[in-house]
Fold each of these.
Amino acid sequence: MASPDAGVDRLIQAEYQQGFVTDIESDTLPPGLDEDVIRAISLRKQEPDWMLQKRLEAYRRWLLMSEPQWASLHHPPIDFQAISYFSSPKKGEGPKSLDEVDPELLATYEKLGIPLDEQKALAGVAVDAVFDSVSVATTFRQTLAEAGVIFCAMSEAVREYPELIQRYLGSVVPPQDNFFAALNGAVFSDGTFVYVPKGVRCPMELSTYFRINEANTGQFERTLIVAEEGSQVSYLEGCTAPMRDENQLHAAVVELVALDDATIKYSTVQNWYPGDSQGRGGIYNFVTKRGDCRGARSRISWTQVETGSAITWKYPSCILRGRDSVGEFYSVALTKGRQQADTGTKMIHIGENTRSTIVSKGISAMEGSNAYRGLVRIAGKAENARNHTQCDSLLIGDRCAAHTFPYIEVKNPTAQVEHEATTSKVSEDQLFYCRQRGLSQEDAVSMIINGFCKEVFKELPMEFAVEAQKLLAVSLEGAVG
Amino acid sequence: MNHSLLDASAEAERYIGGLDSRAGDWLAERRRSAVLGIQQLGLPDRRQERWRYSGIDGLLDGNFSADWESTDNPLPPLESVMPDGTQAGLLVFVDGSFQAELSFVNDTGIQFTSLRAAMAKGDRKVLAALGSLSGTGRHAFSAINLATMQDGAVISVSPGKSIDQPIELLHIATAAAGGRMLRPRHLITLDKGSQASIVERHLCLDADGYFNNVVSEILLQEDARLDHQRVQLEGSQAYHLSEVHVQLGARANYRAINAAVGARWSRTEINGGFLAAGANLDLEGLYLAGDGQLVDFHLDVVHGVSGCSSRSNFKGIVYGQGRAVFDGRILVERQAQQSDAHLTNANLMLSRGSEVDTKPQLEILADDVKCSHGTTVGQLDPQAVFYLRSRGLSPSQARRLLCLGFASEILEGFGNVSLRGQLADHIQRRVESIDLENV
């Protein structure tokens, strides 16, 4: 089996393809964080005073908190004073249309394969592209507006829809929730706001592409999706980042609110720069994502494909408050090189007849470390709650690691909770079987890994499923000797 | 945190100063380092990951003393709990002290001495082995045990010997144990190729609140085989903490069944490790947590060498205000290729107000392994209950039958028939007594 190894190594060691830096004049605050920096951010974004007060409150709470140490992650301490907390790609006023957008920026998207105008025409996907911290282009606003759907940058929403923002922002993830959520609450730069009114089925898949571009600027996105009674929305989030040699911090917060009979589907393909094979550089991704199924029969579904970032700390969760509400979490996490991922979910069952499903697939290769950390809590009043959890880990190479830390807390005797987890490597028997049917080593492994992840991929919207498979293929195809 | 338990150092000084003077500096040294350990480790609290589900407030409120009891108290009549005498050895501990006149060893393959005697004699071999598997411990309680240990069983089985009948370690708490912390410490060694089975029982004879803080260190040499049946039937006001450290040599085989049904608060920590390839660790458990009880099991199985296997299967029934905590950790280290490790935990919740917190963990650093864990929490199948009721059984009979069925997988592992029967009776009695209104 020596010869296939070479091909495997070549493939595993494939350098990050989306690595390039766009030189655009940018308006960046000097590194450091204090109340003045927060005031400056708020001023630049022309925010009303109540928003500034919210930020300051979050900052004051953050000062009292300490960084969580419980995850199985190892990284040098982060110097929060060495980070610049605001970076805007362009001085002056925001562009009014695509024509006003810096052509170099558009070219960046071109390189990533997501030309905005092409997407308009082809996929029927509205893209609110975030380049560093300010939304620079927003498409399909009109079509969405006709349906009554609000899809805009958070900074804009703060100015234009203050009642909605005041009502919902921070209602799912309050600033005191955790260290990184508090930090985000204080300095969040921009993000997306989606509001789907009562009974409306969002006419298209909503999508945002994020990129971190400025060196040493943290990206602090804030996303809020509110689905009113009986509405439906599917949101796609994808990230790629250019190659950089310094660690960049990303601490996003995503809040979802689903009222009666509403459905929110949130899909992520995350491919931030993972650092080189020695573990230099790479994004530190500390994300708080939480959905609140407030209404009866509401439904929130998280699907994520995590292949990037040096460090991933992310637990998309569902609070199943409404009766008969449903929470789902489907995840594929891939770590290679020196990547570390500590990811999972929390399903908090509070209402009656609530159901949740967790499917987590971890793939560790080279010196990658992958941990599933999940909580299923059935509160005393959650009659007839159901949960099924399946966590599988695939190990490729003898220096990688796979951990599983499920927490199960049941306080109601009518609950039915099942958890199972397995860890193994790609079986020699399966490989042999495929090989003797004439498949190359690489194709065989690719097929086996795709099969391993299939349960999750089938939950992704079609556009993303393709991208996800491509990502896995590039990263890992044939990664077993 | 300040608590009288942490003042065990003064108590330890007494042992160091006088009681085991003949053991000399060596033992004094060990006790002193354990006293340091008590201060450094501190008392557990719920902010610690390993204790997040098990509060110890009640235990601390008990203010159990670590004093050295006088052994010349007249014993209460113990006939009712004494076994039939068919054992290869019977070692009786009353309130933590070895009772020579109640005990016997019938097999020449077994070497036995009480820990108290070994310390008094200054038995270097025994003293050197103390704490070799447990270390100072992970929390103040195990350090307290080491700092103030007073008695226990030191058993070794000669190479190649196969002991057919079980050796029984019988622990009885009597009224004299009230308000005290008992801290027996056992040291069990099976030499190359030997085989034995040990029955370890913890019983109570009308004692009020007491705290039994037990540590066992078990070393199995190459090809040795030990069957360990443990039954915790402490008094309803008792606190029970037992720590088992097992280390297996090449091709050794350790099989343990742990039944925890008594005590107001109990916690069993089982630490398993391997020294060489081919060894097998098999842990089973059964717990019952009813009104106000907390039953906690912590497994820590470390695959540090390649080619070993471990299997853990724990089942529990909770009802009333009972709480069950299960934490099963499997660690497979980088060099431990060809490890095979599996763990399952099933919980049956019978009534409202009860709680199950279960946390199986897999930490895998090697790739050529087969590891899995699974947990379930659920209730009795209403269809099964309906079936039995349609056959004329009362609801409580149906429940009893189904619970016994659930437990039987573990119960059947008890080689000792009378022990099995005793446990089955206990479970039936308690399951049948549950107030139907709250189910």
Amino acid sequence: MSLFKVLKNGILDENPTFRLVVGMCPTLAVTTAVSNALGMGAAAAFVLIMSNLFISSLRKLIPGNIRIPAFVVVIATFTTVVQLVVKAFLPALDKSLGIFIPLIVVNCIIFARAEAFAFVNPVVPSVVDGLGMGIGFTCALVIISSVREVFGAGTWLGFQVMPQGFQPMAILTQPPGGFLTLGVVLAVVNAAVKGFAKSKQNKERKAMA
Amino acid sequence: MKEILNAGVRLLILTLVAALLLSGTYLITKGPIEEQALASQNASRLAVMPGATGFELVDTASLAGFADNENVKNVSEVYRVTKDGEPLGYTFLSSPQGFGGPIPVTVGILGDGKISQIAIGDITETAGIGTRIVEEADFSPKFAGLATNELRTVDTLSGATISSAAVKTAVRQAFNAYELILNPPAPVEESSAEETATEAVDMTGAVLEPVDISSFAGNDALADVKSVSRAMKDGQPVGYVVEVAKTGYHGLVPVTVSITEDGIVFDYVVGTNTETEGLGTRAITELSPKFKGLKTNELRTVDVIAGASVTSQALKDSFRAAFTAVETLTK
């Protein structure tokens, strides 16, 4: 698999949120505003790349039967280091990201990529996989949070985008709104993927004929 | 065996390295994190007291009137604020309960007793509803410049009543604390004479004379009062005995209360009831010593028993009705 394919795989074909449907807890929790989604996406991508890097480079030293506890130790250590450093030296970032950083430990995307990719692949593809998955996760969060923020608060990234007369649908920024939006967006994405696959099939059939 | 040992040792080394890495990071970041915390705390105090140069923590625990005072129970941090050595006022951190958790409000009160500004800290209110207390940019500034008697002019936000009322409570408590610091209450000795004077009169052995309670008809607060008797002792009235039967969890809980002339609960008896054994009955046994000697305005100090709230509330309501009955008759 070429590096570009690995990158595209994370963003489109195996998008963690829309195609693999992992990491639902942070997805539902932080998508109330686009700024939160960007913050969570960036923090998760960072930890994802670093944990893929470490696990991939340590993969020959870790016996298969203790890989799960080893992943937990690597991911948790790395997240805690990031958390402490951000808290100490980047107070502005800590204020907007503070609660999301500890959440990364339980983000199963990172765990899933460690298990499925980094543990069985060399370092460079693993890092690229982390980058692709991170971008894919961020994109998915931004799409969901855009829907929730625009219709739930009338703003996008804090700027007023809806006309003054627009009455925000407050439920979309509430937890139930997270489920509603996620369901609708997933349905649209699934329909699009199906449509795309069908047209590709038709094209191939025509080419054969 | 060898394989397990090998895996164990590797895991041990991995966790050891991780632990060393973490403790190293912790040592490096500990100081800066504490500085940041202090800076952000000072920032909220500075925000409500622009131009201040000095903050000095006031030890409220040793101040008269602060301990066990309901009126200032949410006030946790009080700072004396100075500007270039001149006293400027006080800041109060007051965190009453909102809808989704405590609402920390920093209130700055200037030397003339008026609010400088208020700042609402990190809240966990419902997004889009309770968070309007910070999202609506003109809510907090409404408090600026208010004196203690002008606080009621600030309206709560409809739809976010609990959260915005909590902010008002926070400010009210800050005013109370300010008042306490400027005018500390008189020492307790002076009032002790008064208290002994109102000690419950011994009502044992009194003769009961039924009282006509037909005037109670139509009064919802007195609907559950079954009878009232005048207690006479040696020809002198000593108080009232009221029979009330409120609905508990499983039917009626009859309570007979004796109240002295001075309006103090002398004694009471809970009659036969069908409350759940071990739950509702707990309320009756555990609350029993608490009602004796209470006055009408002290009834709210009795907390309901968790797990038996319905029964406890029925008991409290019975006492409330008994007090109301006596007040109606003596009026």
